[in-house]
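Q: Is it fine to ask for two folds in a single conversation?
A: Yes, each is treated on its own. Send the first.
Q: Here.
A: Result:
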Amino acid sequence: MLSTRRATVVTSTKDDVVRTMAESARAEHTLLFDPSGTVSTPPGVRRVGYSPLRAAASWDRAVVVTRTLVDSTHGRPSDSSTHWVERAGALVAPLLHASSLMSESLATAVSRVEQRAGDDALAFLLERYGELHPSVSLLRGVLLTDARELSGIWSSAAGLFAGLRSEAARDSAREGLLDLDAFVFSNHQVHVVSPSHVQRVSAPLVTGFIDEIVHHTYQHHYRGARLLLALDELANVAPLPRLASIVSEGGGQGVVTLACLQDLSQARARWGETAEGFLSLFATTVVLPGVADMKTLDALHHLAGRELVATPSHQLSSRGRPRGRTSQWVERDRMTRADVARGRPGFALGLGTTKEPRWIRLTPAYRDSRWSSSLSRATPPLSRISAREDESRESPDSLTRTRD
């Protein structure tokens, strides 16, 4: 993060990383997205907010935003809940689209779902688009559902916005929105901090926030937009539903992903069978000591393979005198499961593109002059993003934008 020349999104459970980056010698700016509204703003850091309504101004994007919201809330729904999850998404997408076009606040849009009031949104979309637009036909079809079933759909839809039920979260959504055009062409960092006690409810907002930035980078990568995703505690803080496609396709569209997991059991719980291919999906893997998940250890053990080792043997006479020496080739594991789990002091196990395990020496930042010098300087002035929200409307260089 100290050396990258890309715009960077960093996720973490504590504010230690954002404080360190804000106090470093980086000339670029440090931003904070706090979906829970519980993290204090470090000196020199500017807060930004997120609202799914910005992207929902386009009907096609409203569908994608809602899909992200549904997937990050429910993960992999069981067969019994699939119907309710799908119908909830069908209801929320046109409601978000209508709220965005009517320039409503996110709190108003959420209240409409909680109060089960969709008629005004349907009337607005009907007047704007006519009978045949997909948003009109979809919303009308859901609202015409049998009353008992419709009640369940409204309840499922309200559950998608669980992360916005607190006043702090709604205040966070009213922060100046990140200026995507300015950000993806910069070297600035936005830090997403989500403490463990709020991760479950804030995850949909985090995934929506990151997904919006990724999508914008895809759209403008041909103009030089570049993004680094440095995602710590990935499975809990930022459980991106389309992580596999971002990792596999993002490199060719300006997005590089650095993901951190405790072990692959976290990935399997969140992404199911897709997680089985993570060691192949990520071009490079670094394994630190302490892994205890047997499936993870088995995978790394098998990747290491086996080798032939010459084992010498000495022949002795009946009186114990040397009579000769022979060598025998013995096949053995290059690396045992215990070797992987315990590691080596000062080393990590690395897998490159060929997936051949190698031990990599770890150098603490304070021992390397390239990093220690960068971490010892005070916070740079907020010359570019210190303007207040009313000024940010007029400045093309501003990294935040406001909503009415």
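Q: Second one now.
A: Result:
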Amino acid sequence: MKVVQSLVLLIFCITACTNSNNNSTETHSDTTKTNKEPLIETLCFLRTEGLKQQDTAYVQLVINGDKITGVFANIPYEKDSRIGTILGTKQDHLIKGIWVYMQEGMQDTLDVEFKLDKDILMQKNYSMDMKTGRQFLSDTSEFTMKYKNIDCAKLPERLKSR
């Protein structure tokens, strides 16, 4: 329970720390030069499913050029949640990375792939290795899980209490 609360706090800290403007101006005698660092953009997405929309997944992406960091929380209703961080790269609209998460007090990892298109984030579905019981992205995985864009400051209450 404390791990979940810590990770939700991490979400808010990342959001608060990445909303700064990175433009600086240098003046040398009569010449003004503006140095623009890559724009850091923070986007948040939510997916709900189930009869009462009680199964929730939340993704926060911090995009710095082609580098991606963020938070990914998969919280099914009355089941074990997976909450952790994403580290990856972005090329055009495709995001590939590693999700390092905690589940039942154990740390684990999964590859993740997303497609970002305007206000929609699509995630590739996982296959299951029946011998190991582990999920993985197969060659036939498709972008089937749809997330809607939300205001990062308006995280749903049911996620704040975890």
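Q: Anything structural to flag on that second result?
A: Two points. Residues 82 and 102 are 6 Å apart (CA to CA). Residues 2-19+40-160 form one domain.
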